[in-house]
């Protein structure tokens, strides 16, 4: 009888412990497997998350795939091809997670419209080891990328593709490229790009690169002359702590007219600007080089002073301190000249008015 009672107590204790353990562990949600073509408007919900691609997924033209906040999407080695609309908008507290694979916004996908809130957009998402290709004017903002590549690709027509890549954090962990903008007019603004062999590559591009923090890369900004017209605007960026700050190379001789102004370009290990077989002169005035010593500034620029076959980088006049303004003030002499011109014009007009009145 005593033995039976002891066994009952033992079984009861074990049951209580097992029940408590199961209660604390909780329920693991089974993955929702997806593949194939999405031919009607579809929502991937948090209730059915995570979603796991078992093959390629296509979003047809005229169709919208909406991904709710908090959803996890495991792309695995597959891709989502967007011919219609993808809207993946997380929140600060419920971010969407993408891992592996590729998301391809084709030229048939819908452009983002800021006024209506329609079109392709990904915001407040966490990406791991994912490539995002954009052949349309998609908006990619407020995301975190680790070991990822963002690649806006156009046709060379400046009015063709103007995607928005804004307020993202990209950590390459040694990956070759962070952002490759090729033949497009992308707006690349307010991003932090670190840990890549090439933080940004502008390939035969007319993109606007503004307000970015680019550091700890082998090359901060790589301007690559391939074909067409290369006229990027590189403005108000902090490009520091890379091996080379801005590196310019070419495959062939093409029209080249970059705008490089109001940046902080300094403390890069090799050169702040490095011309590789580039015969073009470059205007890089009104930047902050970390010093006002012109000799020291020149020593960190690789141009015709080191190799007579190269173009010359003009850096003077330059900013005399770090640029802390989003849109910096123009030099005082410009305002002075403008003020004098306006004053003289006013005086002349007043005299003519008085002469006319006296007649």
Give a description of the structure:
There is one protein chain. This protein has 359 residues and is an alpha/beta fold. Helix content is 16%, strand content 38%. The chain is elongated and about 70 Å long. The chain has three helices and 31 strands. The termini are far apart.
Radius of gyration: 28 Å
The outline comes out as elongated
N- and C-termini, Cα separation? 134 Å
Largest sheet: 13 strands, parallel
Mean pLDDT: 87
Quickly count the helices: 3
Structural class: alpha/beta
Please report the total strand number as a whole number.
31
How helix-rich are the residues, as a percent range? 10-25%
The number of distinct structural domains comes to 1
Beta-strand share of residues? 35-45%
Poorly predicted sequence stretches spanning 5 or more consecutive residues: 1-5, 8-26, 326-339
TL;DR?
With 359 residues, the protein is α/β, with parallel strands linked by helices.
């Amino acid at each position: 009888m005593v033995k039976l009672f002891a066994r009952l107590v033992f079984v009861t204790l074990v049951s209580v412990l097992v029940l408590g353990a199961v209660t604390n562990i909780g329920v693991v949600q089974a993955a929702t497997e997806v593949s194939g073509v999405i031919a009607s408007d579809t929502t991937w919900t948090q209730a059915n998350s995570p979603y796991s691609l078992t093959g390629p997924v296509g979003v047809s033209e005229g169709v919208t795939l909406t991904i709710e906040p908090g959803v996890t999407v495991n792309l695995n080695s597959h891709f989502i091809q967007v011919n219609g609309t993808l809207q993946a908008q997380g929140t600060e507290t419920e971010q969407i997670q993408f891992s592996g694979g590729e998301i391809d916004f084709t030229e048939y996908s819908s452009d983002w419209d800021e006024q209506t809130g329609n079109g392709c957009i990904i915001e407040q998402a966490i990406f791991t080891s994912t490539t995002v290709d954009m052949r349309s004017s998609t908006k990619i903002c407020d995301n975190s990328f680790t070991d990822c590549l963002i690649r806006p690709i156009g046709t060379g027509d400046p009015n063709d593709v103007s995607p928005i890549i804004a307020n993202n954090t990209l950590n390459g962990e040694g990956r070759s490229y962070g952002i490759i903008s090729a033949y497009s007019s992308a707006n690349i603004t307010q991003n932090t790009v670190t840990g890549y062999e090439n933080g940004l590559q502008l390939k035969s591009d007319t993109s606007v690169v503004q307000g970015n923090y680019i550091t700890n890369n082998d090359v901060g900004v790589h301007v690559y002359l391939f074909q067409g017209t290369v006229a990027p605007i590189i403005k108000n960026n902090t490009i520091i702590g890379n091996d080379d700050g801005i590196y310019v190379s070419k495959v062939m001789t093409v029209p080249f007219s970059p705008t490089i102004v109001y940046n902080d370009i300094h403390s890069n290990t090799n050169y702040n600007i490095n011309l590789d077989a580039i015969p073009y002169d470059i205007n890089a005035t009104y930047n902050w080089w970390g010093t006002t010593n012109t000799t020291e500034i020149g020593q960190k620029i690789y141009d015709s002073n080191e190799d007579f076959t190269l173009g010359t980088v003009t850096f003077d006049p330059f900013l005399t301190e770090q640029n802390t303004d989003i849109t910096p003030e123009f030099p005082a002499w410009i305002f002075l000249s403008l003020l004098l011109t306006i004053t003289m014009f006013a005086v002349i007009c007043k005299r003519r008015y008085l002469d006319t009145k006296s007649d």
